[in-house]
Amino acid sequence: MSFIKKILDKSKGPQALVIMGIISFIESIFFILPPDPFLGLLCIARKIKKVIYYVFICTFLSVLGGCVAYLLGEKLFELALYKDIKFITNNIEQINQLKLRLNNETFWLMITSAFTPLPFKIFCISAGLAKVNFMPFLLGSIIGRGLRFLIVGMLAYKYGAKFEEILKSKKIGYLMIGLISFLIIYLYYKWK
């Protein structure tokens, strides 16, 4: 816990933007901490232009990290084929069927993934593994992550020090569960 506390403490200092930027990028690939609290700390007691600027930086670097995760997933799939990993090579037909299904829903999946408590990196790496069409992946990521970070930035801007309480409230958890449930039900009926 002291590692996280150190990062949060540094996020209040002059390196705050750099820390938020790095976390935004690496969280989309492998890191466990989301950039939201860091973005929120940056947006408290700032002018609206600064808030928009921080949201833009956070979104840009997060989506860039998501693109790296997509490429990583793509390369992992190619490596699995090259190394003849049976789990992959024996299921190529099923993987191709999944890819066809995902290609039709990539845009909406990426928008939804930005709001779920499931790590964004899972969706990005999986999109690369399935080699879904890149443009819907990219556009959905930009819109989804952009909206998410805009909401976080605006909440921090509007509520200031109460921002942390809002993020920890049960209502946010219920909203996330609702979004995941909606996604599961939608995909079930769409693919049935």
Structural class by secondary-structure content: mainly alpha
Q: Let me know the number of strands.
A: 0
Amount of helix: over 70%
Strand and helix order? HHHHHHHHHH
A few lines on this structure:
With 192 residues, the protein is mainly α. Helices cover 81% and strands 0% of the residues. The protein has helices at residues 2-10, 16-27, 36-43, 48-82, 86-89, 92-113, 120-130, 134-159, 163-168, 170-191.
Give an account of the 3D structure.
The longest helix has 35 residues, at 48-82. It is globular, with a radius of gyration of 18 Å. The mean pLDDT is 84. It is built from ten helices and no strands. The protein has helices at 2-10, 16-27, 36-43, 48-82, 86-89, 92-113, 120-130, 134-159, 163-168, 170-191. The N and C termini lie far apart (44 Å). The chain has one domain (2-191). The chain is mostly helical and 192 residues long. Helix 6 packs antiparallel against helix 7 and helix 6 runs parallel beside helix 8. Helices cover 81% and strands 0% of the residues.
